[in-house]
Amino acid sequence: MSTNQTSIYGGRDPVDLPAYAILDAARLLGVSPSTVRAWALGQPSDSRDSKKRFQSVIEIADRDEKLLSFRNLVELHVLAAIRRQYGVSLQNVRRAVEFMRKRLRSEHPLASHRMLTDGKDLLVRHAGDLLNVSKAGQIEMDIVSAFLDRIEFARDGALLRLFPFTTTSIDSDPRTVVIDPRVQFGRPCVLGTGIPTEVIAERFQAGERIEDLSTDYGITERQVEDAIRYERLPSAA
User: Fold this and answer.
1) What is the DSSP string of 85-152?
2) For residues 35 and 90, is the Cβ–Cβ distance under 8 A?
């Protein structure tokens, strides 16, 4: 990234700026707030010692203010890949991630370019207690692959942007909505426009017609519909 691009962010990479509250991250990814909170901040154990807590799975950008970065958002997106089909315990997920940190030598292995290669296999295999890689492993790997395909990296491996799911269909979900930390400060936008999906959804909720919004913003009606649907997606239980 050039100096000019980072200057407006105080010289920091916008990928790592604390920008998302727990509830915001949950809404953007369609994950329950309690799950995001557990993965990002940890949670009390089931033991009688109320002070004992399970450690968090990821290292968030600002723990004091409980704010996550775009890189954290991508990590949660990957974690949701194994959450989508299985109720994975916090302890087991954390063990798998710690193993990957050591193997991939990355503080944020779930948001690294290497997740697209050996990292994906490491996550599933080391979390063998979670996923049956011997019997239905190919299906489960396909689920992880579908989530990883929504992450875009630069040629040098730098994290660029994320295409969140706008429907409940993993296989056929369009790439109409994008989250780019360099566009609208990381707010979800219609791809290639910089138009926040939240703005479109608010205008529709206020009674404006899809065809009128399409004309106003110079985008297709399908793009308008995808933006509205994305903003209406419920968080997972």
Assistant:
1) TS---HHHHHHHHHHHHHHHT-SSGGGSGGGGTHHHHHHHHHTTTTS-TTTSHHHHHHHHHHHHTTEE
2) no
Q: Which whole-number Å values give the CA distances from 104 to 93, 108, 110, 150, in the listed order?
A: 16, 9, 10, 21
pLDDT (tens digit per residue) in 131-166: 433 333 444 556 677 888 899 999 998 999 999 998
Of 163, 165, 229, the C-alpha closest to 197 is: 229
Residues with Cβ within 8 Å of residue 119, at least 6 apart in sequence? 100, 104, 109, 110, 112
First-to-last alpha carbon distance for the chain, in angstroms, is: 38
The amino acid that residue 30 corresponds to is G
- Looking at the structure, give the CATH architecture of the domain made up of residues 163-237: Orthogonal Bundle (1.10)
CA triplet 136, 137, 140: central angle to 5 degrees? 95
User: Is this model's pTM higher than 0.70 or not?
Assistant: yes
From CA 82, how far away is CA 125, in angstroms rounded?
12
